[in-house]
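Okay, can you check this protein?
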Amino acid sequence: MILLTKTPSPLALALWNSFALSQPTPVPYSFNPSLFTFYQKHFNWKPYYFLLYRNNKVAALLPLVNTGEAWVSLPHFSYGGMLSQEALPEGKIIQEILERISEGELSPGFYKINVDEIKKTDVANPRSLFIRSFGNRHDEHFTKSEKVTYLFEINDKQSAFKTLNSNLRRKIRKASKEDFEIRIGKTELLNDFYSVYLKNIQLLHSLHYGKSFFNDLFDVWDFGGIHFYVVYQKNKPVAGALTVSYQGFYENLYFSTLPEVRNSYVSDWLHWQMIQHALEQKTMENIIYSLGRSTEFSSVHQYKTHWPVTVVPLYYYTNLKTTAQNPFYRKILKLLPRLLIKPISPRLIKHIY
């Protein structure tokens, strides 16, 4: 049986961030250990973050969250699973860790484990799991999902603009001549961001987060930046976005525009403003700007791929049937009146990982 050794948070955070920084390219924002506190604060869930050792050195990171219904990595954010340069048996490691936690009734926290102690056989009673992994982990437990993400590696403003195709540069220049004003800030922009975000979500007949979700995220975020971007036309909010960063990885988490300004190429212009702002904050030579997760071959996919991005597939490992997989889920949402959906949406979305 593997030994899980609880590690004091200050030491664990230093080891976690040091390993992430040592990787050859910036690692996804979702490995920012600030999310450990966010899951406790906002959802009252139990996070367990593992430092996996080999030969007395950290070889991998693995964040897991016990939601009460399942073990998820990572709920409500695009990427999870194991961060490692080695080909480790991720599925077996996860299941044995969960078996050990269950037997020992271990409290949430940061833990050190030695991966050489992992058994080579499958666990008899696997727990409910939903693991969303960044890239192919070369593990038989994982299956390619319908979701992909879009990464734009950049060094400086001038070279980044040159990599854009002529049509995209034209759209950005045209939008810059419109009477758009952009404001970049923190929670003082929440109400204006939220007014655009909520209208866009309602048009999509999707569930939305409450304002407390964003307030709590700002409250706990560390080891990187977090900003709202709001575009105004005649003092009216018409577009908004939220980005977070961890070391050199910047991701557009939520992005919304009102229908009446979309023909003015405000989306392209806003992304370019966000890219420039990321470059102003950078602390390393090359950074990654992510346009976020989307369904492959969808209309959003077609939009994002007109940027000079690398399309990275996402893989999942699950034995859990989620609410969003129910074929009647979206049909039901479309039938329910907005006045009913609005107050209950933040409680419902909690269970869609």
